[in-house]
Write a structure and sequence with these properties.
Layout: E1 15-20, E2 23-28, E3 35-40, H1 64-77, E4 82-87, E5 94-96, E6 101-105, E7 108-111, E8 116-122, E9 126-131, E10 138-143, H2 145-149, H3 152-159, E11 166-169, H4 182-192, E12 197-198, E13 201-202, H5 204-214, E14 219-222, H6 237-240, E15 247-253
Parallel strand pairs: 4-6, 4-8, 5-7, 11-14
Antiparallel strand pairs: 1-2, 2-3, 3-15, 7-10, 8-15, 9-10, 9-11, 12-13
Length: 255
């Protein structure tokens, strides 16, 4: 299965690569009014190989001091914003938050507050940012295959108020690189249609887009970047093995 969007270079019609003090991130082009999002790359940190260099996870065997420095650099790149995060469990849990800090176990966060960011950690799984009508609410979702087939993005949409929700699918592994079992491919085809699989290759973003459309989200922006194809920019568990880092995806309401 071919990647549907050109992934080489530093920008496309759908995304642009930005940086703050060498910390690089991908942002949609154009960005929505009233909100900002950052899909951070692996560049601009201090971690040594194989976590080079902007790994944000303490659970992969990286030097804790390096991870702390990387997180500080990311916070600075987000203009000093603190973050709300969850202990990700590859499920369909959604939490609503009103302040930064750990918000328990879940795989998605929603807020109608400003002044801080919502973040998830990824290394092939799909980060999805959701922007409510007039940016009254924002959400961030970690959607691997388990979360996708459990329809976590649909749960988040139902948690948000009003119509006019826009979705942004960030860098993730795509149908060109994501081979799964025949059984899992068949499960996805049964739920989301035959177009989400080609043989044993699974297109998670296409399944997520179908799920979003099913619950009335008509504006879906897919940045089109594949973590499996672009290991120069992103960590990929599938392509690089278990000893690799985690990227951070973030969204925030603007004042």
């Amino acid at each position: 299965m071919e990647n549907r969007v050109q992934t080489e270079g530093r920008e496309s019609d759908a995304w642009v690569l930005g940086s703050v003090k060498d910390v690089e991130y991908v942002a949609p082009k154009p960005e929505p009014e009233g909100a900002q999002m950052w899909f951070f790359t692996r560049k601009g940190g201090v971690s040594k190989p194989p976590f080079d260099s902007l790994n944000i996870s303490l659970k992969v065997g990286d030097d804790p001091d390096a991870v702390t420095e990387n997180r500080d650099r990311i916070r600075d790149a987000m203009e000093g914003r603190e973050s709300a995060w969850v202990r990700q469990v590859a499920g369909d849990g959604v939490v609503r938050v009103s302040r930064p800090g750990l918000a328990g176990e879940a795989d998605a966060l929603v807020t109608d507050e400003g002044g801080f960011s919502l973040v998830v950690a990824v290394a092939d799984c799909v980060p999805v940012a959701l922007i409510g009508d007039e940016a009254g609410e924002v959400a961030i979702v970690h959607s691997g295959w388990r979360g996708t087939i459990a329809e976590i993005v649909a749960r988040v949409v139902r948690e948000m108020d009003g119509d006019g929700i826009r979705a942004y699918i960030g860098p993730c592994i795509r149908g060109c690189c994501y081979e799964v079992s025949e059984e899992l491919a068949e499960r996805f085809a049964d739920r989301f249609g035959r177009k989400v699989v080609e043989g044993r290759y699974l297109d998670l973003p296409r399944a997520i887009k179908r799920n979003l459309e099913d619950v009335g989200v008509v504006e879906v922006h897919d940045l089109g970047l594949c973590t499996g194809c672009r290991t120069d920019l992103f960590f990929s568990h599938r392509k690089l093995g278990p000893e690799t880092g985690r990227n951070l995806a973030a969204v925030a309401r603007l004042p």
